[in-house]
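Narrative summary of target 7.
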Amino acid sequence: MEYASETAPDGARLGIQRVALDSLHLDPANARAHDDVNLASIRASLERFGQAEPLVVQAKTGRVIAGNGRLAVMKQLDHDACDVVKLDVDDLEATALGIALNRTAELAEWDQPVLAQLLKELRTGGELDGLGFEESDVDALLAELEAQAKGEVEDPGPCGPNAQTTPIPGWGSP
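Modeled conformation, tokenized:
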């Protein structure tokens, strides 16, 4: 059953379908590990928000290209179905896409001051559940930004104000 669709940049139509979980398979070659902390965060997010984005699946095999952690948690929660986008790609392309989707997300950075402000507002409203951030994470982020604003640096590294250099023989004068 198709719920929604949109046109991809290459003109292909992407359709979201509802499928049985038992028709899907975790990618045995998934290079992205999901530790207990990550799985707990995924679980909390699914419990709070439900499935907010579809899994990306290889059409011919049911192999999950993106969303292996979500699928594992949905199975733990005894879901019987989920939303997916099926792509007609071969095994090599599925592997490449899985890596690309994970890597591009990994390369993104938080705008720390904006994130801190948003988390502070959400915490004030009691809305941190399901975000993957604990109270201690918010406290640490706020403390870090406050220290940066004051010009304090926790670890100035080897070029800090009290750094001492050790000459290496044959590498110029001390």
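Confidence is low (pLDDT under 50) at residues 1-9.
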